[in-house]
Design brief:
The protein is of the alpha+beta class. About 20% of the residues lie in helices and about 30% in strands. Bound molecules: zinc ion (ZN). Zinc ion binds next to helix 8.
Length: about 400
């Protein structure tokens, strides 16, 4: 089994377009062969703070306990844990100033295992002013002897709940949350302990216990143990923010027509509430594009049925897929330029380039804003899932 990235799901937002553009969450795409023989893992391990892995310290708000290497309780105060010269150094910080209260306590150990103490979560972050709360336990280690890696050992159920909450705005209706719950559960059936799950750039957004809102907990409760099947196999799970008129099949990623009945492009007229349903036109300095992306504008050779570019060619004979170019533009110049994979590059009147796009994310699988639009029209989650994954059915884990 092998789960790997592809990307991108633009988070939708109640804060308007600009804010939404900054809320890029990344969705998982599973490249493994379809396989239904997976037993549900009871616990998952998630590498936290992926975006800030270079930090040599973490900050915690007590209470919490260290259970390994030795049991120790920490009161409701502020702490910093750093790793120096083979020792974890635990420093209690002054409430207001964040200054050390006394010399650090040093522990020599390959890792520290932190458990909850009192509340059901541990409050931890890379920065003093950016603490998040996590269910389960936290394992701190320093594989390179300098930086601290922080892993969350969390039950599959708490993980699914926090991901559904992190990937959905608070206003989304419960049937849309239930549809996402079945998708995240299906994806998690593919994980095994060797998979390196993380919280941002390669997997689903996972922002901790604060996103386990009551309606999300209820949606997961009502769908627990369910999975999405194509025949008797797990459906490969894709979802994105907004398709803006039609989804695409996984042909976008692979360049090959999918043979799977559940992996098809569908027409979607249900995501018009999304700030990304309209076409965005952004200027692009030709010199900048030519320096950082490609020496010239590409020619579109083929498009799919939803009008997304599939194959591109350049005057120098090179080729790439539309998806590859879209990723490179997003990663190099920012996702706000072309939030969706239905994009087009052209020359503008002043000799520079411009880029048009609509939708948000890769456009494959479930359209989240469409899912909320259908839920508002009274569709239940099973019908929503069957709409975006034709011929699929919701099954129950045995
Ligand atoms: Zn849509």
């Amino acid at each position: 089994m092998n789960s790997d990235v592809v990307l991108v799901f633009m988070a939708k937002s109640r804060f308007g377009l600009n804010r939404a553009l900054t809320l890029i969450a990344l969705a998982i795409l599973l490249t493994a062969d379809i396989n239904s023989a997976n037993a549900a893992p009871a616990q998952l391990v998630v590498l936290l703070f992926q975006a800030d892995l270079d930090s040599d310290r973490v900050f915690l708000d007590g209470p919490f306990a260290i259970s390994k290497p030795n049991s120790q309780h920490f009161a409701p105060r502020h702490y910093q844990i750093a790793y120096k010269n083979g020792y974890f150094e635990i420093t209690e910080l002054n409430q207001q100033l964040g200054k050390p209260q006394r010399p650090p306590q040093k522990i020599r150990a390959p890792f520290l295992l932190l458990e909850t103490a009192g509340p059901r979560f541990i409050s931890i972050g890379r920065r003093k002013d950016k603490i998040r709360r996590y269910f389960g336990a936290i394992r701190l280690s320093s594989p390179d002897g300098k930086k601290i890696e922080c892993r969350n050992l969390v039950s599959r159920r708490d993980y699914v709940t926090c991901v559904v909450g992190s990937e959905s705005p608070p206003e989304f209706p419960v049937e849309a949350l239930k549809a996402l719950s079945v998708l995240i559960q299906t994806a998690s059936l593919r994980y095994n302990p060797e998979d390196r799950l993380n919280d941002t750039t390669e997997k689903q957004a996972y922002m901790g216990a604060d996103y386990a809102r009551p309606e999300v907990i209820a949606a997961v409760q009502q769908t627990w143990g369910q999975k999405l099947l194509c025949g008797d196999q797990l459906v490969p799970i894709y979802f994105h923010g907004t398709c803006a008129g039609g989804t695409s099949s996984s042909e976008i990623f692979t360049g090959k027509k999918s043979k799977l009945a559940c992996d098809k492009a569908v027409i979607c007229k249900h995501c018009s509430d999304s700030p990304f349903s309209k076409t965005l036109i952004r200027p692009l300095a030709a010199s900048e594009f030519e320096k950082r992306i490609a020496p010239a504008l590409p020619q579109v050779q083929t498009k799919d049925s939803s009008n997304r570019p599939l194959q591109l060619s350049y005057p120098n004979g090179k080729t790439e897929t539309g998806y590859q170019l879209w990723l490179r533009i997003g990663q190099t110049m920012g996702w706000g330029l072309a939030p969706g994979t239905r994009f087009e590059l052209s020359k503008s009147k002043n000799g520079d380039y411009e880029i048009r796009s609509n939708g948000a994310g890769h456009g494959v699988g479930l359209c989240q804003w469409g899912s909320q639009g259908l839920a508002k029209k009274g569709w239940d989650y099973r019908k929503i899932l069957q709409f975006y994954f034709p011929s699929s059915r919701v099954g129950q884990e045995s």
